[in-house]
Amino acid sequence: xxxxxxxxxxALPEGSALRDLLPRADFDVSAALEKVRPxxxxxxxxxxxALIDYAEKFDxxxxxxxxxxxxxxxxxxxxxxxxVRAALEESIRRARLVHREQRRTAHTTQVVPGGxxxxxxxxxxxxxxxxxxxxxxxxxSVIMNAVPAQEAGVASMALASxxxxxxxxxxxxxxxxxPTILAACALLGIDEVYAVGGAQAVAMFAHGTESxxxxxMVTGPGNIWVAAAKRYFTGKIGIDTEAGPTxxxxxxxxxxxxxxxxxDLISQAEHxxxxxxxxxxxxxxxxxxVEKELEPQxxxxxxxxxxxVPALSGRQSAIVLVDGVDEGLRVVDxxxxxHLEIQTxxxxxxxxxVKNAGAIFVGAWAPVSLGDYCAGSNHVLPTGGCACHSxxxxxxSFLRGIHIVDYTRDALAEVAHHVVTLAEAEDLPAHGAAIKxxxxxxxxxxx
Length: 447
Hints:
The chain is α/β, with parallel strands linked by helices. It contains 17 helices and 14 strands. The strands form three sheets. Strands 1-11-10-9-12-13 form a six-stranded parallel sheet, sandwiched between helices. The longest helix has 19 residues, at about 80-100.
């Protein structure tokens, strides 16, 4: 069901050579870019009419308006299963605790007497959030995107999610996003919601339409078409990341429980047939036990043939055998997993040595599932090895640092000769002249 890669015996290669040995899903955003281009342009030129046409073409629903009525949000919350509501409320509470601590305050550095630089943090003015609605429905992603934006102080927020086909004749929820998505919006106080999916949702936020004002930034997970649309609009709007297929890597030794390891690999595989599940271990006994444990656990769950089996048997998943935990750390750092579990002896110390991961889950009692919902951490994380240079979504994602430079005449005079010297060294004499003009065209002598 899952392949093996044996990296024992020989010295591990460095850098990209090691990365090339590791499993990874095919996810060609560049190829998808040309297919989303006409969609994005149609939304630009035709606005809501294009969105309505695409809802019929891609989602199989006929809409009169893409804006979700306030009554639908209220009804979705009223009809929400009380247990689901309680779970969502607890997820929101914990996420707020963590993200509130990420807030930044202005800081002033006194460079010289009379000369200071202040960095102040200003939230993005308007954000468009995207919540998928294809194979699965993710109200948890609504929370993970909305909470950090709210804690950052974003004043205007809108959410888009694909319209759902009617489940029966005259279904009141037909043509609206999934009711659990709507209920999560209501719990979070998001009252601007659109029944729009895919690349066209990103285009709606980027260009604006008759119904929806343009946004400064778009965040949220999605399929390859959403990722391609984000790339298409990079430079016009801010984005969080071009999210690829989800992935888990588990670094484990002989102390790990194969039942836990197998269940965690399966939990990630059930997202998508391209989901990656990777176990890195120095224990052949654990590898064999996990392989044996996968079969009954897979057979006992859901989404077997359409997601889990293709994901576990695909080229993106494998058990990687290494000589020891030190070598395992090199492998997981080269892989740069979205989610990295450490199930080894002294897991906290091993986790502290990890350099590249979207989020790290320490020990047997911190599975990725906890982080997906109720750890308080954010589950919008870099994929495809991007954890070597990017971070997960946070309050900082929605803030812009602005430097405020405040110098007196004397403070400028003290450094004027250096400014003029550097301007002339770069052959930019007008830069130096802007300094000289303030002192009667004679540069003050340094003190």
